[in-house]
Each structure stands twice: as structure tokens, then as C-alpha cells.
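#lab-general

N.A. 3:47 PM
ok so I finally got the sequence cleaned up, no stray characters, all 248 residues accounted for. can someone with queue access submit it? mine expired

B.Y. 3:52 PM
send it over

N.A. 3:53 PM
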Amino acid sequence: MAFSSCLCQSPLSPKIDCGKKIVRPWSSDGRKQRFTFSLGSNSTELVGQQLVTVGAHLHKHWSFMGGSRVTVRPELERSIPLRKSSGVYASWFSTSQIASTAFTLGTTAVLPFYTLMVLAPKAELTKISMESSIPYIVLGILYAYLLYLSWTPETLQLIFASKYWLPELPGMVRMFSNEMTLASAWIHLLAVDLFAARQVFHDGQENEVETRHSVSLCLFFCPIGIVTHVITKALTKSAGSSSTRNMH
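B.Y. 4:20 PM
back already:
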């Protein structure tokens, strides 16, 4: 910030010299005068704030005992906070909100189906719900939307990073560091896990195999849930065969 001023002061003849014009600190009748000069500056933007007017007042005092004295009183007339509206920041904020909302809605949407399969596997409502394709359509549309928002020009390069056109772990780590990409992957997992849980449920109903524990595991540990169902089914058949032989 540059201030322009012109002050010239002499202990014997106190005066203020501004350019070629000399102004003395007393009037023609001998009375002292008080002069106020404003040192102004242009509007300045500094660290997110715009200072509209910044000035300083110079007060000239004269007395026989103390001589002349110039007092500088800084004055800040008005300060208006100014936040820079960045399109990137606004876009990031809206993207983050969309990802968080989609994550919560997707997780909440699949919970009723798991609840029906675990708590009421024989209910008619559970059978109707498991025959419906609506949850997969909704999750598929949501996944496609999130995938569209998370897609970047380098997405394919990260997926097929190796010379054999195969994914590599560093590329996957970099790609999933994006919050929107991670949310789309979560919706993808929810859809696949629910589909696998439904298959386990149907298979259990057809073969009269307990599936509650397997369906519960499919929610967050789908591969383990599938393996558990296979083991449970094998043990159930083995126990059924043993009981049949004993009857004969």
C-alpha cells in the first residue's frame, strides 16, 4: 500500500509544504489552526478482504512550549469481507454433498430387504420383495449417475494402467481417492451384494436350508456369506442323508 504525502517541518518556522503551496499553522489573527490531511490509497484486496477506503488523518498542533507536532491517526473507514467465489470450490462442495447423500441413501435403501430375509424369511411380503427387480434398477441408475459425475479423461488410463491392459493397484488407489468414485463403487457393491444375498435366499428356500446367517454376512462380507451358505447347504444335505439312512 503506497501513501503519498508531503510534509516539511522546521523547528524555527513550522509549516507544512505541499508541493509549491505553503500552509502555516496559524491564521492571520495569530490563532492556531488545525489542519487535517487524508492519506488515501486505492482499493486493495488482501487475504479474502477488500478494503474499500483506508486513510490516515494528520493533525497539526502548535504551541509555544512544545513547538509544532504532527499526529498521524490511521483510520479504517469501511471494510467489507469479500470471499472469492471459486467455481472449483463450489463444484467440489456440491460433488461432496452428492457423494455423501448417495452413500447414505444407497445403504439405507438395501437394509429393508436384508431385514425381511433375516427376520421374516417365510413371509409373503419377503417373497414378493425378493422377486422384484426395482431395487436393482434404482441402484443401477444411481450408480450410472455417480459414475458419470466421477468420470475423468484419465479414468481409463488408471483402469488399464499396465502394458497388458490390466488394472494395477497404484492406479486403483489413485482413482478411488476421489470421493465421488468411492461413492459409486459403494453403490456398485451394494447392488452386487444384494443380488448375491437374494440368490442365497432363493437357494435356501428351494433346498430348505437355513440362510439367515449367510444373508447377514452378504451385506458387508459377501464372499464369506456365499462360502458360508455353501458349507451350510452341504452340512444340511449330509445331515439329511444320515437321518434318512437311519430311518431305513
